[in-house]
Amino acid sequence: METTTIDVRQGDFNVEDVETLRKDFNWEEMKATFSWYHTGKVNMAYEAIDRHAENPNKKDQIALLYSSPKREESLTFDQLRKRSNQFANVLKKYHVNKGDRVFLFMPRSPEFYASFFGILKVGAVAGPLFEAFMEQAVRDRLEDSQASMLITTPELLERVPVDELPDLEKIVLVGATGVDVSNYIDFDHEMEGASESFDIEWVDLEDGMVMHYTSGSTGKPKGVYHVHHAMIQHYATGKWVLDLTEDDVYWCTADPGWVTGTSYGIFAPWLNGVTNVIRGGRYSPESWYETLAKYDVTVWYTAPTALRKLMSAGKDIAKQYDLSKVRHILSVGEPLNPEVITWALDAYDRRIHDTWWMTETGAMLIVNLPCMEIRPGSMGKPIPGVEASIIDDDGNELPPYQMGNLAVKEGWPSMMRAIWKRPEKYNSYFINGWYVSGDSAYMDEDGYFWFQGRLDDVINTSGERVGPFEVESKLIEHHAVSEAGVIGKPDAERGEIIKAFITLNPGYEKDDALLEEIRQYVKTGLSAHAAPREIEITDTIPKTRSGKIMRRLLKSWELGLPTGDTSTLEE
Ligand code: PRX
Q: Any idea where the AMP-dependent synthetase/ligase domain is (predicted)?
């Protein structure tokens, strides 16, 4: 098979030769680079922040560089250590203990990061929620995780059904100036009185650290549970793949409500001691380029949807900004189009390095290291210490170029340790010692992996993973909707958009105002990214005899493809 390759050497890298690194690599040896290897006890907050704050040469380096339209603020490693200590003391005062789930539902801000590390410092499990979530999405997650505390803002509190969440005992309000806080814990007030020193709760490698809810084809979102052990891989991939060194200025565009925003927006950069740019506010090509230029960003981790938008905004805009400090660009979350890579070579004079991983995998697994030759359209190769393969449904490995399940040999450090309260769900990911991703792919003869699609009905819209079931459930709560089937429809900019097929209850007829109302209903009930961009009224929703919605058939209809096997279709 003919493949184009791009091999443009663009500097010196932490890893000069991946094959040498891969040879004889094992994670156990990597652990020995950390001091906790000898004590057995660990805490991510210490390794990411306090360790640097204790180093006289590093403590005054800017750790967090926050920029939003309304506010600009920076915190050194020392300041971030002190603020997170203060918040850890607040948590202790309110009896938050090791293993408790403490959720954060707020926009990115310095307070978010101080709170986040405060949570880890008391040994609790942090659960960041995307700020765009509406009531149903918030309720599902708080209910399932049985979070005992939530940190939020007065504006977002409206979307928290406090009275319906018996486990949620305490709510901390950030930025509550002028608000009646009598039923809540006032962040600013508590922080003022809190001590800047704190004795970290040392935990085991396998103790819980962070939880992210993500979607599958069926059921409510599931709580993907990660432990402190993951830090080895965050650190290693930060060094190898992001190519971070201590004087880098790094910007990951993802929100911490998604796994990229914690693993690579928090852990990997700070474990590697870099200055981390955190940007609040909305996307526009101008404001993004300004962020890169103004803060002299050197390493930039973003997503295909954003890159496609920047591409359609045109390279002339890019050329108006001084992006000369940007030395390394990476992408994650959805297929990275070869034409984006080609465009970036021209517009930014840089290659874009695709990386593949999932909420469940906790960290990057298949990547394009900066020293590697890039094959546009390929996700790259497994990182050292990781074995990936293409397997059939029985767990047998397939030869090059054969399409099958993209699978990874169990045993990498950042692997999820549980699906919260659902062991059967967790076990369903594995076959013959392989973690099965749900993606289909093939491998070429040189070991590069090529993504083909999802094998289940999970939708990937603008890099955000949406479960059709959640959207369908919300749709049928609307009084006009009888049944609903939801699919991802290919879209040039967003990868996929959400398309809903619905049947109407008696007495309702198709009209545009109604369809818009239904769309808004999902948007305000669940979240903006889960609202269908297209809604089509049909006479029936195809189902199997056992009542399962045949989304595959809906998709074939939509795309005008052959419908395949319909033997299980209901009469
Ligand atoms: O289908 C793959 C796609 O995103 C899914 C994982 O989504 P999520 O858990 O939200 O995590 C996203 C960020 C880590 C995968 O199963 N995906 C992720 N990276 C790529 C990708 N698809 C193609 N190319 C990628 N590089």
A: 57-418
Tell whether the torsion through CA atoms of 307, 308, 312 and 315 is positive or negative: positive
The CATH architecture that domain 18-443 belongs to is 3-Layer(aba) Sandwich (3.40)
Rounded to the nearest whole angstrom, what is the distance from the C-alpha of residue 538 to the centroid of ligand 1?
31
Residue 49 parent element (H or E): none
Q: Which of 430, 452, 427 is nearest to 441 (CA)?
A: 452
Residue 439: which pLDDT band, with cuts at 50, 70 and 90? very high
Contact between 110 and 220 under an 8 Å Cβ cutoff? The reply is no
| Cβ atoms within 10 Å, residue 533 | 14
CA–CA dist 377, 124 (Å, integer): 40
| Number of other residues whose CB lies within 10 A of the CB of residue 296 | 15
State the average pLDDT for the chain.
95
Among 464, 465, 494, residue to substitute to test ligand 1 (most atoms within 8 Å of Cβ)? 465
In the chain, where does the domain assigned CATH 3.30.300.30 lie?
Answer: 459-559
- For residue 194, report the distance from its CA to the centre of ligand 1, in Å: 41
Query: Ligand 1 centre from 360 Cα, in Å?
Result: 10
Cα-to-centroid distance, 258 and ligand 1 (Å): 11
Q: Whose CA is nearest to atom 18 of ligand 1?
A: 333
Q: For 257-296, how does the pLDDT look when each residue is reduced to its tens digit (9 = 90+)?
A: 999 999 999 999 999 999 999 999 889 999 999 999 999 9
CA-closest residue to ligand 1 atom 21: 334
Half-sphere CA count of 322, side-chain side, radius 13 A:
5
CB atoms under 10 Å from CB of 69, counted, come to 10
Lookup: tokens for 495: 């990868």
**Ligand 1 atom at shortest distance from the alpha carbon of 460:** 4
ipTM exceeding the 0.90 mark:
yes
**244/240 Cα distance (integer angstroms):** 8
**Position 472: which residue type?**
E
Q: Where in the chain is the domain with CATH 3.40.50.12780?
A: 18-443
CATH number 3.40.50.300 is the correct assignment for the domain at 459-559: no
Assign 367 a pLDDT band (cuts: 50, 70, 90): very high
